[in-house]
Design brief:
There is one protein chain. By secondary structure, the chain is α+β, with helices and mostly antiparallel strands. It contains 18 helices and 22 strands. The protein has a seven-stranded antiparallel beta sheet with strand order 8-3-2-12-11-1-22, with helices on one face. It is globular and about 60 Å long.
Amino acid sequence: MKHSRASLPVRRLAAALLGALVLTSGAAPPSQAGIVSAAHPAAVEAGLDVLAAGGSAVDAAVAVQFVLGLVEAPESGPGGGAFLLHYDAASGAVSMHDGRETAPAGTTPEQFTWLGGRALPHALAVSGGRAVGVPGLVAMLGEAHAAHGRLPWAELLAPAIALAEAGHAPAPRLRRQLRGDPTLWLFRDVRRYFFRWPGRPADTLHDPEAVATLRTLAEDGPRAFYHGTIAEAVAARAARGWQAGTLTPEDLADYRPETREPLCGPYRQWRICGVPPPSSGGLAVLQILGMLEQFPMGELAERRAEAMHLVAEASRLAFADRAVWVGDPAFTDIPLEALLAPEYLATRGALIDPHQALPAAEPGRDIGASDRSGGTSHFTVIDAAGNIATVTSSIEAPFGSRRRAAGFLLNNQLTDFDFTATSTAGPPGQQAPNLPAPGKRPRSSMSPIMVFDAEGEPLLAFGARGGSRIIGHVVRVLIATLDWGLPLEAAFAEANFLHRGQHLEIERGSAAEAHAGTLRGYGHRVRRHEMPSGLHGVERTPEGWRGAADPRLDGDARTTHGEAMLEP
């Protein structure tokens, strides 16, 4: 995707010359400039080291992700998938790399049913081998590196290898997760690696298999994950135990990442770019913003209950469309243009009463042609030349399928499929778009986002964790930054609230709780939840680029100089 702007050739030439010297107007050489915002300090440090060595944003993203696979193992890693949104500062091009998991060849539409065709309870499906999709993360990173990398692949894995060899203490959040979920002790793979005895996390995490896998990937490249001993180990573990899966080494060998056109659209004077299906994130975010554009959101900073109500209503309508129309584009005809048409969004927005919740949010019918809050991580990198990589990666539920192979947890992403055809109520005769099928990518909610100003220059790049809550987290931050003018860090720290179609969720213990009574008066069903949104990103300010990290997690945002901003 290329952004039009005035005097484009002149601007691009200037940007390229400046990028070769400094990121802002400072004197730091490009090998020492850049920002990394990620969910763990060790991952931030790995990315900064790569940037300091002259690496690109994607180079640093590779290093960050492999370290996160160790220190934030329950959220993401080689056993999962990811979406990467990339901005090329020299050309203005935005590209998207799809590393979403695919269903094995042996997948059937009924594999998550039991007792006469009823949907299997999600809690039982999560830990089954049938929940494990073909991991796409490593292949996607390899493809992105081939397109945008500067440093040799092997150098990018060096920080993760060093950490895996030395071992590392569990981060505070991981300790809380291990202590807060007694059921984790029931799963052998989790128990052996993360615990020393019930209720006590291991003091140091170390696995020789992780070291071996990382060394193999460094020496033989990304394809080594999909062939030989690693692929055999992954397939064998998915095939053992409860609800044995059908994943085979051949499924891994056949996996291919996709490069797709980003999904971009306007919001007031800005342009928002996100990821297209099989993620519903970019579409839902643009739909919600398109409906809200007819309301004076900028005037509602001090009228939060009204703002929360409007966002919730637009979200309900977007999630209704999501359930009916969005799936893997290789299997489903998704009318993206119609769903984002200004006339359609104006019609949908007209359904919103500023002071009363809709009795029911129905999907749009005049179109033309179930996630849970889960194990996910988001990080963002900007390099010396101004290239940006913003990545959301996941193994789905925290601790994925509770199965480990080749030193890493395996995903349970296939539970992002609908379990039965009655899960959605689409138009008559329309096949459910998100049922399991061989080779199909399950619908996702991951929403890495970039915002461009009226000149076409990048302004924000960020994303979140949280399963289908990701969409709400991203929309909330966009309203806070674009309409209310908050700095990104302040917007991240604001109270979380969102609506996924069932009830309005507000963050337990936050300032949003003060509005619960008013929102109930509007007709909303309000529930309080913990919401560790894991927002990480960068923003452009008059003083330079600045990083921001969600205060709810253990993460950080730093430059190679140790600060959160690249100052002039």
